[in-house]
Amino acid sequence: MTFAHPFARPADRTHPIVAPHERPLPLRVGTRASPLALVQTRAFLWVLSRFCPVLRRMDVFQEHPIRTTGDAVQDRRLAEIGGKGLFAKEIHEALADRRIDFAVHSLKDLETELPPGIVLACTLRREDARDALILGEHCGEGDPADPWVALPPGAVVGTASVRRQAQLLHSRPDLRVTVLRGNVQTRLDRLAQGSCDATLLALAGLVRLGIAGRASVVLDPDAMVPSAGQGIIGVTVRADDTELHELLAAIEDPEARAVSTAERALLAALDGSCRTPIGGHARLLPDGRLHLLGLVARADGSFLLKRSIAGSAREAAKLGAELGTSLRADSPSDIFL
Question: What is the pTM of this model?
């Protein structure tokens, strides 16, 4: 089985991994049903089959697209219907019930505390973590040096992300924000139909769908701190499935694991809800140390605090917890209610 996907970039390995033995085939992989989720799932399967020739047979894997509550309810923010874990709830129920063998996610959609018996077994190499600004026909030219200058006074920006909203309004309080949810193409279509003047999307999704050219401006992480885990594909399995856990460990990307560990530790320390604008972006420096940028804000942009920390990548969890504790200590308590 070969998924020759241009966006799957396997880690550098010198030995093929070993296929699972004495278990029923096909291996059932659960995922959201959106076009981007399916592309990410096939990218993951390409990486997996690349390092295990036995898994290249066409009958080894079976995709199980699952419609989640987060996908079904499109007219409200996630915070109003239960949080971002709603993009994984039904998938993890299928995993716990043994209807699927593993599940593929956008890591940013996973809650920091997974359901009992479910573990994050694998993170794949990160795609570009930055956000992209997509401008409508009534906006000016995009300028990476001043990304908001293209938005006319009072422009309407469509997004359901309080993280994006807070940073946008902090820089441009004159702008208006309207809720815009749905898959990538749905949001682009609504922008084209005039529902808003501009929108913001994860660049990684545009790249994986082959439409990176739709980005008017790619935003520097300092101008728009990304969501923790953005651009990383994560795979969950049952904690007691040691065979699949070991299989997936062989394709783990060490850098993705380090940066995601730091970012998710930051989230855990802040303990914010989906109503709390929180951003986190970690990267490895040329000297091998890990740099982590964190953000806490109010949704209306009236308060915004950014800080960074750097240290050994081996202490990624500690760095994330330390930065999160620092940000929480110096932020108004009502932000985390």
Answer: 0.89
